[in-house]
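During the practical work, I worked with a single protein chain and the tokens that describe its fold, as given directly below.
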Amino acid sequence: MSSSVVYILDLKGKVLISRNYRGDIDSNVIDKFMPLVMEKEEEGNVTPIIQHGNVSFAYIKYNNLYLVSLTKKNANIVMVFQFLHKMVQVFLEYFKELEEESIRDNFVIIYELLDELMDFGYPQTTDSKILQEYITQEGHKLEIAPKPPMAVTNAVSWRSEGIKYRKNEVFLDVVESVNLLVSANGNVLRSEIVGAIKMRVYLSGMPELRLGLNDKVLFESTGRGKSKSVELEDVKFHQCVRLSRFDNDRTISFIPPDGEFELMSYRLNTHVKPLIWVESVIERHAHSRVEYMIKAKSQFKRRSTANNVEIIVPVPVDADSPKFKTTCGSCKYSPEQSAVIWTIKSFPGGKDYLMRAHFGLPSVTAEDSEGKPPIHVHFEIPYFTVSGVQVRYLKIIEKSGYQALPWVRYITQNGDYQLRTQ
């Protein structure tokens, strides 16, 4: 990877903290970073990588911070960005929030973490669970340097030895988010499913887990092509998964970290029938009032139910005197969002509901520069996957031979779910 220096800067480009791993880049080079960023912004040519002479700046912005990596080498740039995002993740797990104040409050521990995260420009221990075993929240170093846990020197660097639980359990959640964009005339412009398998593992010893999904490639290779299967795209695994095994026979085999982690993520670029369809009729009477008729329809099977559905309908900034009528749920006007929020606690499949809203408008109107923001929908459907992904089995093998209970849940929720209005 070869990252020479890592900096954390505030929004004005002032250095809050830095760690020079190689000593081959002059410390005043960072002064050029902010002027270069501003120059790119003025040109409308913002890029995450900026070249200055023989130095490359790769950076990400998080809250009110810039995290910047400098290198002179021909670095693996994907790994550089992955490292910067991993840094953010580790700091969040330590400090709960990552902003200028949390950096200033935790200088000592951040320097310790930077020393463990990377060595001579190469990523080292980046798993926060393992780091927390020997870099404590207090951040005070012992007089005698403590021995790092075995996990750091083990082949299985994400799990410590000697873990014991009275009750051995595994919780597995298949969480799918639906991204949808519908045009004002009802055409689906974008539709995709982004999925993740999240786990909470409370198992003793060094268990090996094997997970079987209804994976299309596997089903076709084993002659089960007719069975219900799903073609997963853009699959990304946690480092614990044996990739060679997956490439060979599509087996997802791994020794899991302890506690909570994301085992894998995937994407399906399939045409999804919108789960909650929203139609809107908006009558604008200039200088007097605006009326909305919103119809929401659940287009999934009757045995499923969407919970905590929120339909967020944008209204003009200067609207007042709201009146609502609904066949189900409740409405409230949120002036800070310039929107009506229609909440339906429980929305069974195959149902449709109506909401009418009436707003007064001032007799003198400002110039309409708002455009027409889309309707957003939030929802969660338990016990349901829109893609049809299924966990066929989860085997747990551990040399002591204990019995363990696997619990599997499915959840479908909204991602970026928008319907444009006329």
